[in-house]
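Narrative summary of target 7.
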Amino acid sequence: MAKKSEIKPAEFDKEYYEWIAELSRRYRQCQIKAAVRVNSEMLHFYWSVGKDIEERKYENKYGSHFYENMSRDLTLALNNRKGLAPTSLWYAKSFYCLYAPLFENLRQDAEKSEDANLRQLAEKFEALFSIPWTHHQKIIDKVKGDSQKALFFVHKTLENNWGRGVLMNFLSTDLYERQGAALTNFAATLPKVEGDLAQDYFKDPYRFEFAQLNGEYTEKELKDELMRKLSQFLLELGKGFSFVGREYRITAGGKDKYIDLLFYIIPLHRYCVIEVKTTEFDFQDIGQLAGYTAMVDDLLNTGQDNPSIGLLICKEKNNVLARYALSRVNVPIGISEYELARQQLPNELQDKLPTEAEIEKRLASK
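Modeled conformation, tokenized:
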């Protein structure tokens, strides 16, 4: 019996394999684009459904079981093919009602000014149809009708390519309220546009819920934990932060100085010197940070980098004293607090609760 012919690879044909790799990349890109288009079309459909429900006032007309009845009737109209669940129909109306008034107000404002504002409005509106429907459902659940807050999370999802789990985490950590809330002197030390951009990069407070620290802990232990969970620390800092080093040595005047944490903010093209304090803010902290920031500018700046920024993250701060300290500093500096999840409980209860590691160990032993 003749052997079945075999398809053999084109051995040692570099051009052939490069072509195959290119085809595979194009295929994956096509799949992604197709999925994005399908998602966008479905979101536009949900928007239209929500618009119809709201404008026709059917929910008021047909009572509390309207969504169940509509889901059933729509399924029958589709010849018993899978239709839309009652919850999906409710979210469709919520989706429309959440954003429609906001964009109507923005449209009216944009029409009174330049065409460029209308283009920006159109881009903001289309962003709604660029993230998954399940993301929208989580946002709707959490923002409680706050359309500005909802739109903030839509744009953050797009900017950072957040999965649903990451989005849910930030929805639960008051990111909208914390973003850009750090106390800074950027208005006095940076040009307005640069200062506004830099301000948006810093939060207050920072949430170090991932840090497994019980009761009393030292500054070194906190920094050890931040480095051990570096990926989560970077996620909390935000998109664009690149880690340069810990206890970064920098020498001037024959003296070695060690920076707690040195980062580079890629979109801003500038270094960020971070000092972490497990104590309350005090004046000398600003002097130390200002000195480190000036040294980085003098010794590390290539001439293509923008002036460095300092960030002090402390356990707590007195805002009045912090403003006094910043008012006499000529380098850009921000001051923020940090929080650990377990700090929200009384001290006597914190030590009695098991840590995440202890819970995992107990579950594994069952």
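Residues 342-350, 359-364 have pLDDT under 50 and may be disordered.
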